[in-house]
C-alpha cells in the first residue's frame, strides 16, 4: 500500500562488547510483506530486533525505514516513525485491565476520539480481547496475553511490526489462532511484519518470505514455500 513500511538493513554488525553477535547482516522488507526471521537459539534474532528498535546500538551498518536512516534515532523516535516491537514474553501490564493496557499503548499516539477509535479497531480485530476488556492482565491466559501485547502495539498504528517469538509457551491451537490473527491484521492494515520465531512451521505458514540467521549471518533469504521445501536447509539450520 501507500502507508510505507519498507525496511532496509545494510551491513549491520552488532556486539555486546566482546566478539560481534551479528556480522554484516543485510536484507530488505517491502511494504506489507510478512517475513519470518528464523534460526536456532542464539543465532541473533533477538539482537537484530532490538537493534532495529534502537535498544542496542550497532557497531556499524544502517537501518532505513521508508528511505530514512533510523540508526541515530532513539527508540521513541523510531516508534514515532511507525516502528513497533513486541518483545518476547507476552509483555503486558499485569495490574491493569485489557482496556487500560490498550489505552496505554495508544496514549502517546492518539488523543480524544482518535484514541477511542484506535482501541475500538483492535477490539474489532481481536474478538477474545473484547470479551476480556475488564479483566486484569494477570487474569489472562498466555494466548490472550500475547494477543494483548500485539493489540497494544497495533493501537499506535505502526507501519512496521517486529515480534520476538510470540508463540513461545503457547499450545499449538493457540499458536495457530494467534498466527492467523496476526496475518489478518497485517493484511488488513498493509503492515510490514518481521516475525522472529523458533516455531518454523507456524511462522512459515503465514509468512511470504523467510530469512535464516546462523551465528549472526544471513544464510538463506527465500520465499516461505522455497524454505519449507528445502530439506538440506531445514536439516542444517531449522532443526526439522
Ligand atoms: P534466542 O532465541 O535465545 O533469543 P536469538 O537468536 O534471539 O536466540 P540472541 O538472543 O540475539 O539470539 O543472542 C545471540 C548471541 O548474543 C548469543 O550468543 C547470546 O549469548 C549473546 N547475547 C545476547 N544478549 C546479550 C547481552 N545482553 N550481553 C552479552 N551477550 C548477549
Topology overview:
Blueprint lengths: L6 E8 L7 E8 L4 E5 L6 H9 L6 E6 L2 E2 L5 H6 L2 E4 L11 H10 L4 H14 L1 H5 L10 H13 L5 E5 L7 H18 L2 E5 L3 H7 L2 E6 L2 E7 H6 L1 H8 L2
Parallel strand pairs: 3-8, 3-9, 6-7, 7-8
Antiparallel strand pairs: 1-2, 1-4, 4-5, 9-10
Helix pairs in contact: 3-4, 3-6, 6-7, 7-8
The structure holds adenosine-5'-triphosphate (ATP).
Keywords: Amino-acid transport, ATP-binding, Nucleotide-binding, Transport
Family: Belongs to the ABC transporter superfamily.
GO molecular function: ATP binding
Task: Describe the 3D structure.
By secondary structure, the chain is of the alpha/beta class. It has ten helices and ten strands. The strands form two sheets. A six-stranded mixed β-sheet has the order 6-7-8-3-9-10, with helices on both faces. The protein has a four-stranded antiparallel β-sheet with strand order 2-1-4-5, with helices on one face. A hairpin with a 2-residue loop joins β9 (209-214) and β10. The longest helix is centred in the C-terminal third of the chain and has 18 residues, at 172-189. It is globular, with a radius of gyration of 17 Å. Bound molecules: adenosine-5'-triphosphate. Adenosine-5'-triphosphate binds at residues 16, 21, 39, 41-47, 198.
Amino acid at each position: 500500500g501507500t502507508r510505507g513500511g519498507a525496511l532496509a538493513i545494510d551491513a549491520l554488525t552488532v556486539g555486546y562488547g566482546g566478539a560481534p553477535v551479528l556480522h554484516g547482516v543485510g536484507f530488505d522488507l517491502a511494504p506489507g510483506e510478512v517475513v519470518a526471521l528464523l534460526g536456532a537459539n542464539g543465532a541473533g534474532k533477538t539482537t537484530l530486533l532490538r537493534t532495529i528498535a534502537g535498544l542496542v546500538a550497532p557497531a556499524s551498518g544502517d537501518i532505513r525505514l521508508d528511505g530514512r536512516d533510523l540508526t541515530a534515532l532513539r527508540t521513541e523516535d523510531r516508534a514515532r516513525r511507525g516502528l513497533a516491537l513486541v518483545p518476547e514474553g507476552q509483555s503486558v501490564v499485569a495490574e491493569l485491565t485489557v482496556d487500560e493496557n490498550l489505552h496505554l499503548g495508544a496514549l502517546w499516539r492518539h488523543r480524544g476520539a482518535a484514541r477511542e477509535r484506535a482501541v475500538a479497531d483492535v477490539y474489532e480485530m481481536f474478538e477474545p480481547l473484547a470479551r476480556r476488556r475488564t479483566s486484569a492482565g494477570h487474569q489472562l491466559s498466555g494466548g490472550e496475553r500475547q494477543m494483548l501485547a500485539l493489540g497494544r502495539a497495533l493501537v499506535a498504528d505502526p507501519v512496521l511490526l517486529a515480534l520476538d517469538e510470540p508463540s513461545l509457551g503457547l499450545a499449538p491451537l493457540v499458536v495457530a489462532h494467534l498466527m492467523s490473527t496476526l496475518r489478518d491484521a497485517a493484511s488488513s492494515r498493509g503492515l510490514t511484519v518481521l516475525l522472529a520465531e523458533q516455531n518454523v512451521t507456524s511462522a512459515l505458514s503465514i509468512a511470504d518470505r523467510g530469512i535464516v540467521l546462523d551465528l549472526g549471518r544471513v544464510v538463506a533469504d527465500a520465499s516461505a514455500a522455497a524454505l519449507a521445501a528445502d530439506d538440506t536447509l531445514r536439516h542444517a539450520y531449522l532443526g526439522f
